[in-house]
Amino acid sequence: MTTTTNIESLWVFALASKCRAFTQENVACSLLIMFLAWFSMTLFYWAHPGGPAWGKFMFKRGSSSVPVNTPIPGPRGFPLIGNMNLMVSLAHRKIAAAAETCNAKRLMAFSLGDTRVIVTCNPDVAKEILNSSVFADRPVKESAYSLMFNRAIGFAPYGVYWRTLRRIAANHLFTPKQIKGAETQRLDIASQMVDMFGDHKEGFCVRQVLKRASLNNMMCSVFGREYKLNSLNNEVEELRDLVEEGYELLGMLNWTDHLPWLVDFDPQKIRSRCSKLVPKVNRFVGGIIAAHRAQNGEKNMDFVHVLLSLQGPDKLSDSDMIAVLWEMIFRGTDTVAVLIEWILARMVLHPDVRSRVHDELDKVVGRSRSVAESDLSGLVYLTAVIKEVLRLHPPGPLLSWARLAITDTTIDGYHVPEGTTAMVNMWAISRDPQVWKDPLEFMPDRFVSKEGEVEFSILGSDLRLAPFGSGRRVCPGKNLALTTVSFWVATLLHEFEWLPPSEQNYNNNKVDLSELLRLSCEMANPLTVKLRPRRKLSFSQ
Ligand code: HEM
């Protein structure tokens, strides 16, 4: 970029130097020439399909090295900023609409300021991108750097360090044995949720309980700390505030990530908020690490102990450990709570589906006892319901965090240069009428496999629905997440009838499916319900 900028400005100065003397008129004339040159270059870049970042790149590359082929279609957006507007608010919907307009559902190019972006709304092209080793990296936002996430799995550059972290997490946090080992903890939290929900039968907003339950669950797996849902605890409150703040900062579209000339200004105050948050996270997580180090004797092997026990090349520095632990808490908390809220909302909205789930629970579990995790494999219809909710309301509609091309490559026949950011619009794919029959209908039956059919896997092999991503960077917490969500939802549905609040008690008793996209896509208006217990016996029986 610097080289071209210099060349661009040199000929302007050459022109200016023709002026004999630096009289006021000549200075003004030079400035005008410079402005006109800059303005015409800006328009020139902008005129390229995909907008200014693509135009600038093509101009800089000139006719050198790579043969020019057809440009990737895409909207131009605005001069200089390109299509920043697409990323504001419900980005997945805006991008899908733009791709439709440009007839570029397979592959569309657009610009976020100086950032070249490609996006696909097609499952085959999504597979090509996500499963390619070229896209095993992620673009790191300034906020992610500031919050140390570049040292955690999600944003660590593709390489030895990232591979080590994934291996450690896969071997010590996400193995089937480890997930099974946390069963009692999930059961305990589920029973606390049932007690809390049981105390609020009318006009009750479920989100806060779900978020607290999810946070307590991660606190237990990662930090080995156990907290009660119904009692206030300073440590949990502090961590919740830290997670909320981090969540908001990472979820924001940071203009300085894409417009380098804004870097010095920090117009959205993201940098200053990050710099206030980081010492608090260091103090909090560092304190937990220190407490674990000080422990003697019998240890309950939580993730902190695992990290502390690593030796040799796997050994992590304290600051890297803080980043890894903080990310796990951060990732595992909201996604799970957001998904459960969507599932419960759909249950309130579709009494026919709800009653089929209840029939299945009565048949497989029976009303005389509560759900056990061993029942989950028999709950075929409930599994289909969860998949259908993930199809219509994927927590990461754009798969949360994008990918970055490590080298030049070809996608869907188009040349994609190194350094291009790639996104997959999973939301658009999972609502595409060419991929799904009656895509906007809520029909869990589509996931109930018929005799002899293979069950539809949502774990990344079939890109028609891959809410956990796919390829090298696929979500490592997917099995843990699905076990937690399935067990908690089965329990909550087995214990209660989920109904809309009565009209006389609640003005707005409709389930509102409007979305709010932060880091995850959550319900814009939290779900409010009326609960009727289904089983007379207590939870433990
Ligand atoms: C419903 C719950 C969840 C959903 C929908 C979800 C979704 C995703 C998605 C879409 C990605 C990006 C995948 C890609 O680029 O191909 C991701 C990455 C990741 N997720 Fe999850 N996730 C969930 C739960 C969890 C949990 C419980 C944890 C851990 C406790 C977790 C940890 C991670 C990590 C560490 C990454 C980064 C992986 C990497 O870059 O190598 N997730 N997740």
From TrEMBL:
<keyword id="KW-0408">Iron</keyword>
<feature type="binding site" description="axial binding residue">
    <location>
        <position position="475"/>
    </location>
    <ligand>
        <name>heme</name>
    </ligand>
</feature>
<dbReference type="InterPro" id="IPR017972">
    <property type="entry name" value="Cyt_P450_CS"/>
</dbReference>
<dbReference type="InterPro" id="IPR002401">
    <property type="entry name" value="Cyt_P450_E_grp-I"/>
</dbReference>
<dbReference type="GO" id="GO:0005506">
    <property type="term" value="F:iron ion binding"/>
</dbReference>
<dbReference type="GO" id="GO:0016705">
    <property type="term" value="F:oxidoreductase activity, acting on paired donors, with incorporation or reduction of molecular oxygen"/>
</dbReference>
<dbReference type="InterPro" id="IPR001128">
    <property type="entry name" value="Cyt_P450"/>
</dbReference>
<protein>
    <recommendedName>
        <fullName>Cytochrome P450</fullName>
    </recommendedName>
</protein>
<dbReference type="GO" id="GO:0020037">
    <property type="term" value="F:heme binding"/>
</dbReference>
<dbReference type="GO" id="GO:0004497">
    <property type="term" value="F:monooxygenase activity"/>
</dbReference>
<keyword id="KW-0812">Transmembrane</keyword>
<keyword id="KW-0560">Oxidoreductase</keyword>
<keyword id="KW-0472">Membrane</keyword>
<dbReference type="GO" id="GO:0048608">
    <property type="term" value="P:reproductive structure development"/>
</dbReference>
<dbReference type="InterPro" id="IPR051996">
    <property type="entry name" value="Cytochrome_P450_78A"/>
</dbReference>
<keyword id="KW-1133">Transmembrane helix</keyword>
<keyword id="KW-0217">Developmental protein</keyword>
<comment type="similarity">
    <text>Belongs to the cytochrome P450 family.</text>
</comment>
<dbReference type="Pfam" id="PF00067">
    <property type="entry name" value="p450"/>
</dbReference>
<feature type="transmembrane region" description="Helical">
    <location>
        <begin position="27"/>
        <end position="47"/>
    </location>
</feature>
<dbReference type="InterPro" id="IPR036396">
    <property type="entry name" value="Cyt_P450_sf"/>
</dbReference>
<keyword id="KW-0479">Metal-binding</keyword>
<keyword id="KW-0349">Heme</keyword>
<keyword id="KW-0503">Monooxygenase</keyword>
<keyword id="KW-0341">Growth regulation</keyword>
